Amino acid sequence: MLIFFRLLRICLVSLRYRLDELVLSTIRHPIAAGLLRIVRFGRPPKLERGVRLRLALESLGPIFVKFGQLLSTRRDLIPLDVAQELALLQDRVPPFPSSVAIKTIEQSLGESPYTLFKHFETDPVASASIAQVHFAVLHDGREVAVKVLRPGMRDIIEKDLALMRVLAALVERLLPDGRRLKPREVVAEFNNYLHDELDLIREAANCSQLRRNFAPETGRSHLLIVPEVMWDYCATNVFTMERMSGIQVSKIDRLREAGIDIKRLARSGVEIFFTQVFTDGFFHADMHPGNIYVSDDPKTLGRYIALDFGIVGSLSEFDKNYLAQNFLAFFRRDYRRVAQLHIESGWVPPTTREVELEGAVRAVCEPYFDRPLAEISLGQVLLRLFQTSRRFNVEIQPQLVLLQKTLLNVEGMGRELDPELDLWQTAKPYLEKWMHQRVGLEALRERLKAESGQWAQMLPELPRLVHAQLSRPDTAPKLAQEIEQLRRSQEQANRVLMAIAALGAAALGIALWALTR
């Protein structure tokens, strides 16, 4: 019954924001055209289609807002105007009662927050679709932020996801472009993201890993600050971390007032991104301005601060190598190499003609290179490449879609800080250095070092294994004899088949002679 009422509400909201018109306008059929005239009542909607979709998702609640945010990253699947409008969705919803948050903490951690903490702020400081945050102070005086999951989120998510699957199936069947849009795959991807975000222990582990990747011993601590996880105060629905304070990266006037070098900040953001992707293969994949702050503390002035670690991306060594070579080929305008990389990766059918793919890649990239480098969007080039690759049935990997979304965020943030930021020139030396480390003597030394532990175990066994191998009887004569027997058997079989064929031909000749008499 609850599902029925939820479905009814979705239908009413869809009608209110004329989403029926949005669907019918994409169907090229006389019946659809007639229905479109009826639902419009002779007048088209006043608002643009992207605006109507965004308002509808906001009305349907947090889960649909999250879904809209995911859709905004899939610019390879949906129209650009819709994607840009959905990117405006704000992940801010009214907070749930503090009494519920207190009860959740007590049930999860075994004690009241007023006992666990020296001080606990009842009123939340931030509220999002999945959780809300309260400030607190530990008994040793450290200030922390306590993230509490919204109650009943799993049940709500499962019900809404069930409805989304039904709607996705309808879109796939009814819209002419439905199969290409892959609505069911998008819902499945959304399902994975949501369930990852619902486990705050997973988010805490992501935070801990990222903090370790930028620890002082790595030599990168001057780039990014990641809060410390307070593991004694964490559970699947409670995440307690070091409290961070700073200036939101989008508040450029405040950053200048604090004496922060804006141009340097923009370049540091690019360096952080490429370090996470190509050095660690582990990157913060939700780098919109609401999750990125800049320290105004004199001790750490100008360093980025990362928050919200529910969505992270991971890349294998193969992915990193593929991406680095692709980017470098772009920089050098070596379109043949880009085509070869796509074929070698196995992401296009083996029957793909290299020359055709090269021509398609050239058509995507060449118009960008006619502009000044500072005006070229690396994220948009990657997006256009994904869109073009559909023609060649390229299977776009989920981790690369997440990377593309993050790259667009980073690039947009960098250009907002410094409109003259040349992402290509900032990234190219880094990628060239990375590739040199991968294929040079340093890379060989690092690989040998990484494998040395295994070799230490295997080397003592080598003399015994060599002796055992040499002590085995020589099987070569026996193998040669078996091969000779097999050859003779094959020759005999061939002679029999030739005899049968000759007899058949003779019989056929006799039959034809008899018929012609």
Automatic annotation (TrEMBL):
Belongs to the protein kinase superfamily. ADCK protein kinase family. One of its GO terms (biological process) is ubiquinone biosynthetic process. CDD domains: UbiB (cd13972). It comes from Paracandidimonas soli. It comes from the Bacteria. Residues 89-341 form the ABC1 atypical kinase-like domain. One of its GO terms (molecular function) is kinase activity. The chain crosses the membrane at residues 496-515. Pfam families: ABC1. PANTHER family: CHAPERONE-ACTIVITY OF BC1 COMPLEX CABC1 -RELATED, PROTEIN ACTIVITY OF BC1 COMPLEX KINASE 7, CHLOROPLASTIC. Keywords: ATP-binding, Cell inner membrane, Cell membrane, Kinase, Membrane, Nucleotide-binding, Transferase, Transmembrane, Transmembrane helix, Ubiquinone biosynthesis. This is 2-octaprenylphenol hydroxylase. Pathway: Cofactor biosynthesis; ubiquinone biosynthesis [regulation].
